[in-house]
Write a structure and sequence with these properties.
Elements: H1 11-15, E1 26-28, E2 34-36, E3 40-41, H2 50-60, E4 64-66, H3 74-87, E5 96-101, H4 108-122, E6 129-132, E7 154-156, E8 163-165, H5 179-191, E9 198-201, H6 205-214, E10 222-226, H7 234-243, E11 246-250, H8 281-290, H9 294-304, E12 308-309, H10 316-323, H11 332-339
Parallel strand pairs: 3-4, 4-5, 5-6, 6-9, 7-8, 9-10, 10-11, 11-12
Antiparallel strand pairs: 1-2
């Protein structure tokens, strides 16, 4: 097991020492770039609290922050990073920053403005990992780039926000634009040194294969998809291992704080198990056995599967707890128990964008599903 010096380079991290002997804390991607296996997620982290969460995480030892311009908090993250750099807590080279190309910016001319907006907000000169957030160019008008300063909220398409809504009430959809157009520009950005690695998110296996086959210079080295014990992605994970693509899990603890938990989505209500993942009796039994939290044993389960993950929290104690997982040693019985939880439950379908031909999860939709109107709120802005 290789434990890089960056793992405990801050005074705060030095107080929290873990025996990292059971799972790897970093991975070398197929292009040679080294990436931490565990990072802080920022999807659904509210303004006014995200920056503080980032500072707590970095001081606790995290060295990867997962960002996205549509989360509407990259500027706050950039301010926090600038503080951490100025205080000498960590250097730029010691931290791995990941951000994402938004759906509205898949056209060739719109990719660079998307990245430049994130670089400006994050106050950085390069990004470590830049991924296509979703394969579908929806919501998108397609006539101009849409970034955070245009508004990370729903608005009529004439206003050019990141979530444009057509007169019909459905999302505006640029059905003529395909993600490979964006991919080739991302390859150029990598050649220019603006990004160190490129990948995809929310792609299905066939779509990932298309990018692997169609890449001209740089293949995807990472895929970030929803993954947790209720949605284990076994086939896709096996495919990624064969193809040399690192799998990374978002919502690795489930998505108990999803805004549509009560209503408004095909996946509203409790998962098919009847309980949220963190309250699952099997998970709680394993946690009790190891004298850890449910979140800690789930994160360790991901790492034992060689799956990177980015759990989100804004609570300092939970952020620190979620990093204290490297010394847990799940046995074969624990792993078999986790294996039994795989019920194929996807929290984030975003079926309202399924009118686009590149929508990735059509197999999860009812056969007669008609895309519903755009929801009244996003998961980030609350607008």
């Amino acid at each position: 097991v290789t434990v890089p010096s960056l793992a405990c380079s801050s005074p705060r991290a030095a107080k929290i020492k873990y025996d990292m002997s059971c799972v790897n804390d970093s991975v070398t991607l197929s292009n040679g770039v080294k990436m931490p296996m565990l990072g802080l997620g920022t999807w659904k982290s509210p303004l006014g609290k995200t920056g503080a969460a980032v500072k707590v995480a970095v001081k606790a030892g995290y060295r990867m922050i997962d960002c996205a311009n549509d989360y509407n908090n990259e500027k706050e993250i950039g301010d926090a990073l600038a503080e951490l750099f100025a205080e000498g807590v960590v250097t730029r080279e010691e931290i791995f920053i990941q951000c994402k190309l938004w759906n509205s910016n898949h056209k060739k001319a719109h990719v660079r403005p998307d990245l430049e907006a994130s670089l400006k907000d994050l106050q950085l000169t390069y990004i470590d990992s830049y991924v296509v957030h979703w394969p579908q160019a929806c919501p998108s008008v397609g006539d101009s780039p849409a970034v955070r300063t245009n508004g990370a909220h729903h608005a009529p398409e004439a206003e050019h926000s990141m979530f444009p809504v057509a007169p019909s009430g459905q999302y505006a959809s640029d059905n003529a634009t395909h993600y490979m157009e964006a991919w080739h520009v991302m390859e150029d950005l990598m050649d220019e040194g603006l990004v160190r690695a490129i990948g995809v998110s929310n792609f299905n296996k066939a779509q990932l294969q298309e990018v692997l086959d169609g890449a001209r210079k740089h293949k995807p080295v990472l895929i970030q998809n929803e993954c947790h014990p209720y949605l284990q992605n076994k086939d896709l994970l096996d495919f990624c291992k064969h193809a040399g693509v690192q799998f990374q899990a978002y919502s690795p603890l489930g998505s108990f704080d999803r805004p549509w938990a009560k209503s408004g989505s095909l996946t509203s209500g409790a998962p098919k198990s009847g309980v949220e993942l963190l309250n699952d009796p099997t998970v709680l039994k394993i946690a009790q056995k190891h004298k850890r939290t449910a979140a800690q044993v789930i994160i360790n389960w991901h790492l034992q599967r060689h799956v990177s993950c980015v759990p989100k929290s804004i609570t300092p104690s939970r952020i620190e707890e979620n990093f204290g997982v490297f010394d847990i040693n799940l046995d074969s019985g624990d792993l078999a128990a986790f294996d039994s939880l795989n019920i194929g439950w996807r929290h984030l379908l975003w079926a309202e964008t399924s009118m686009h031909p590149d929508y990735p999860f059509k197999d999860d939709l009812p056969f007669d599903y008609v895309p519903a109107p755009a929801p009244k709120t996003t998961t980030t802005s609350g607008q």
